[in-house]
Write a structure and sequence with these properties.
Shape: globular
Largest sheet: 2 strands, antiparallel
CATH class: Mainly Alpha
Strand content: under 5%
Radius of gyration: 17 Å
Structural class: mainly alpha
Strand order of the largest sheet: 1-2
CATH architecture: Up-down Bundle
Helix content: over 70%
Number of helices: 10
Length: 218
């Protein structure tokens, strides 16, 4: 277990705990479309990844990072791990900013974009990685989980529901970054796993068509 993974988890936990009881800090650094576009507060694209809504939100993200971070560290090294994690946080929020650019009230928090990037970089390297979901004792192959995850996230993003506070766009942007980073830095491995990566990418292609061609959101 690399010290850098523990450091990222520890810093995120400390900042999140402080922000739980500091409304001013929370509001100043959360992702908010109006603040970023109007006031050019681009730091929010990164700082939102250190904030969480509550303890369960924080624990879920950090536990996932704890289990899948070592796979990415082993495959890409410390520099690669940091590039995937923080690149995924930023790209996830940039994608959200693009989608909701006309909704100045839109806000989001959490490391989910970064965690999604780590998870999908790991799946890109090991598509047959077996995952266990909560309350489901049967293991699911990584690439199958990828299809289900992308499909669900795309559907929910394109069909938003009242009361759904999950940042599906950030999840998708982060996961996309993780996949692309893995493919770009390990092209030989990506070629050998091209079938699985192609299957996982189908919901993303549909999303790209709906968002950039049909303009169905934003």
């Amino acid at each position: 277990m690399s010290y850098i993974l523990i450091l990222v988890i520890a810093v995120t936990a400390v900042i999140s705990f402080v922000a739980f009881n500091n409304h001013t800090l929370f509001e100043k650094y959360k992702f908010n479309v109006g603040a970023i576009r109007r006031d050019k507060e681009y730091i929010r694209l990164l700082s939102a990844g250190f904030l969480h809504a509550d303890l369960m939100h924080l624990l879920f993200n950090m536990i996932t990072l704890y289990f899948f971070g070592p796979i990415v560290l082993q495959a890409f090294g410390v520099a690669g791990f940091l590039a995937v994690y923080f690149g995924s946080v930023i790209l996830g929020n940039v994608f959200s900013l693009y989608l909701y650019q006309n909704q100045s009230w839109y806000s989001a928090i959490g490391a989910s974009g970064g965690v999604s990037g780590i998870l999908f970089a790991a799946i890109a390297v090991y598509p047959h990685l077996e995952l266990y979901l909560f309350f489901i004792p049967i293991p699911i192959k990584g690439y199958i989980f990828g299809v289900l995850y992308f499909g669900y996230s795309v559907y929910m993003m394109l069909n938003p529901r009242q009361g759904d506070n999950i940042g599906h766009a950030a999840h998708l942007g982060g996961a996309f970054f993780g996949l692309v980073y893995a493919v770009a830095t390990m092209p030989e491995l990506a070629m050998s796993n091209s079938l699985y990566l192609g299957v996982m990418s189908l919901p993303l292609l549909y999303m790209a068509y709906m968002v950039f061609v049909r303009k169905k959101i934003g």
